[in-house]
Amino acid sequence: MKSFFHVEDIGNLDVALKEAFEVKKTPFAWKHLGENKTIMLVFFNSSLRTRLSSQKAAINLGMTPIVLNIGQDSWKLETEMGVVMDGDKSEHLLEAIPVMTNYCDIIGIRSFAGLIDHEYDYNETILRQFVEYGGKPVISLESATVHPCQAFADLITIEEYRKKQRPKVVLTWAPHTKALPQAVPNSFAEWMNAADVDFVITHPEGYELDPRFAGNAHIEYDQMEALRGADFVYAKNWSCPGTTDHSQYGKILSKDMGWTIDAQHMAATNNAYFMHCLPVRRNMIVADEVIDSPRSLVIPEAANRVVSIQVVMKRMLEELQ
Ligand code: CP
Do domains 3-146+305-320 and 150-301 have the same CATH topology? Predict the structure, then answer.
């Protein structure tokens, strides 16, 4: 595996899930793979789960993790091409990438969408530079448009808790105070479309995800209708993806608190499990009564972040042997 951005990078999902449960059962069984190997984890943005789960997975595999927080531990990096560097950025990615990849065998990058330039973000401009100039396997630790480690962990969690062969999974938009990227819903949609589930997306009009990610999912603008009979409810805020009108990209079109997932919403479901990638704003995205209920899977999901990225690292290390 040369890179981990999309669901197709993991190959057959049944095989990947089987491997995930083996990793979960015996996390130290592949410790020899990481001997004398280093992974660099580069963060342009904040993180709790991704930062810690990546380090834990690397350690489980016998690999040494190095974490770099851009702009805090390092020089501020210029990411635009051809600019006069007369601002506060001291180093260009063009030098920083090959320097960083010289010091490691695998590199993971967290680099959020800027939510200003649709083309720049949806071309995954920064991630692609790491592929082009780094020459080492690259893992998206949430980049402009995707968060595959999260989506794989979500799939593992659904597989663990599903009671029927083909559960109904609903991705629902929920309100937030800030404009958030679409990486989590994009990847969740991409992975659910590839999985054996009945997948529905619900959001206010204007929040349509890019068809590359929404695929053939059923879109239902009536949230209560979408939730009816759901086995899993996955709540997430995202800003306008600008799918049909790029001038709307990154805008907040609604803060309708009627979309907050509370007990009344969950009552429409088939006693569904509640899911969210975290961090979550309580009583904006989800009511306390739901996230604190026994049907909330937010902590098992976060625990599975170690498993999902460990499978990815394991496969990359196997190719490096
Ligand atoms: N879900 C997730 O990626 O969490 P962090 O932003 O804390 O890493």
Answer: yes
Q: Give yes or no for residue 150 CB within 6 A of ligand 1.
A: yes
pTM of the predicted protein model: 0.98
Whether residue 141 has its Cβ less than 6 Å from ligand 1: no
Does the domain spanning 150-301 belong to CATH 3.40.50.1370? yes
Distance of CA 298 from the midpoint of ligand 1 (Å): 12
Is the bond into 204 cis (omega within 30 degrees of 0)? Answer: no
Helix (H) or strand (E) holding 67: strand 64-69
pLDDT tens, position by position, 24-59: 999 999 999 999 999 999 999 999 999 999 999 999
Residue 149 CA, closest ligand 1 atom number: 3
Residue ranges of the domains in the chain?
3-146+305-320, 150-301
pLDDT, average across residues 103-108: 98
**Confidence (pLDDT) at 75:** 92
Residue closest to 186 by CA, chosen among 216, 213, 217, 225: 213
Is 142's C-beta closer than 6 angstroms to any atom of ligand 1?
A: yes
Q: How far apart are CA 58 and CA 280, in angstroms?
A: 26
49 in Cβ contact with 302 (< 8 Å)? yes
Which CATH number is 3-146+305-320's, of 3.80.10.10, 3.60.40.10, 3.40.50.1370, 3.40.50.720? 3.40.50.1370
Mean pLDDT in the chain? 97
Tracing tokens 């489980």 back to the chain, one arrives at 60
* 47 CA to centre of ligand 1 in angstroms: 5
Question: In a mutational test of the pocket of ligand 1, which residue from 45, 46, 50, 238 has the highest number of ligand atoms less than 8 Å from its CB?
Answer: 50
Residue 301 is given by DSSP the state: H
| Ligand 1 atom at minimal distance to the Cα of residue 302 | 1
Please work out whether the CB of residue 284 comes within 6 Å of at least one atom of ligand 1: no
* Interval 169-190 mean pLDDT: 98
Express each pLDDT in 260-280 by its tens digit: 999 999 999 999 999 999 999
103-125 average pLDDT score: 98
Rounded Cα gap, residues 235 and 237, in angstroms: 7
| CA 35–ligand 1 middle distance (angstroms) | 27
Average pLDDT over residues 159-186: 98
Return the pLDDT at 71: 87
